Recover the amino acids of this structure.
């Protein structure tokens, strides 16, 4: 595995205009599981940073996979495939540990049962926060205490529920 990573970093260095070695580092995808590598997918690395896949449709089905991430070029190598990615919120870098996650990204779980959303659905989280659906959409999916990721976008906040491909806009009530 180390030889494969060394080869990939070397390959990235040799390809003009792709990436420089000093701008890349190794990490692992911690969530979601599985990681698919499709446009719009939000993922968290082991260093605490959050990223979004852009303009890619790979259907990779990767579980806790090791990656090489190149923030300055917005590229990530997963299993030999290079993906376009964008940082979602500031996270930790290998040289600069960060004490707490940014307020722009909230990780929690739904408190109890989740059965989707239907227009003005209210979501109570394990961390005590209460959020309400802000965009009209209907989706049914039953899960018990699924993980959620709520993150700031240009238009407000969006919520992604683990195992659900759609995201919705939400507003915080409490």
């Amino acid at each position: 595995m180390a030889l494969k990573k060394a080869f990939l970093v070397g390959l990235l260095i040799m390809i003009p205009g792709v990436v420089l070695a000093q701008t890349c580092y190794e990490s692992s995808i911690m969530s979601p599981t599985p990681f698919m590598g499709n446009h719009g997918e939000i993922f968290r690395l082991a260093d605490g940073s959050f990223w979004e896949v852009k303009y890619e449709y790979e259907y990779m089905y990767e579980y806790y996979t090791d990656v090489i991430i190149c923030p300055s070029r917005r590229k990530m190598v997963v299993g030999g495939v290079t993906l376009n990615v964008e940082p979602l919120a500031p996270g930790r870098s290998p040289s600069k540990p960060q004490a707490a996650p940014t307020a722009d990204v909230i990780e929690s779980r739904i408190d109890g049962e989740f059965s989707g959303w239907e227009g003005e659905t209210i979501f109570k989280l394990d961390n005590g926060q209460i959020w309400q659906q802000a965009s009209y959409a209907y989706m049914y999916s039953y899960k018990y205490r699924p993980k959620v990721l709520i993150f700031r976008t240009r238009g407000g906040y969006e919520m992604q529920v683990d195992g659900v491909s759609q995201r919705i806009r939400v507003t915080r009530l409490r």
Q: What stands out?
A: Confidence is low (pLDDT under 50) at residues 13-21, 91-102. The first helix runs from residue 2 to 14. Residues 105-172 form one domain. The chain has two domains: 21-89, 105-172.
